[in-house]
Amino acid sequence: xxxxxPDWPRWDRALRDAVDRGAPAIRAYPSQWSMPADDPAMLRLxxxxxxxxxxxxxxxxxxxxxxxxxxxxxxxxxxAAIRALxxxxxxxxxxxxxxxxxxxxxxxxxxxxxxxxxxFWDFSWVWGPPENDLAHxxxxxxxxxxxxxxxxxxxxxxxxxxxxxxxxSERSSAALADPSQW
Length: 182
Fold this sequence. Notes:
The protein is of the alpha/beta class. It has 7 helices and 5 strands, in the order H-E-H-E-H-E-H-H-E-H-E-H. Helix 6 links the parallel strand 4 and strand 5 (146-147). The longest helix has 13 residues, at 40-52. The protein is globular and about 50 Å long. The mean pLDDT is 89.
């Protein structure tokens, strides 16, 4: 998935080129780029993704806090930033990666039903057993709010498959979101 930085010159051309090459989504890193939740450039990118018919992918974090170097000053993407982008347009699809249960719940329960319908979560950073955060999220929010990503190369690809395999029997047949239906 290509990255488009909306505060750089000709970003709209980069977006158009990516869409013309068949990109299903555009990735952006507002917290890494020091963009606040309501940054006009991010709002323009969200609108452009909507008009182009592609999803906007946001990454909460790149690494666990315990691994960060003191010179890594970018914060994790905040719930407020995700909600601001979800509220900015009526039809922009947003996929959020590298979020834990707390952030997912904070964002999800702070949005309207219509806003939630456009927001999807890659669950590669959500814990499975013994906490079983994934089963909890599936039961409270619905599995159709989640997509399967690996978080690779920062996470082991086996984690996602293991978390799905270890779901309680009443959650194991839940259908995930189907991006091809968007």
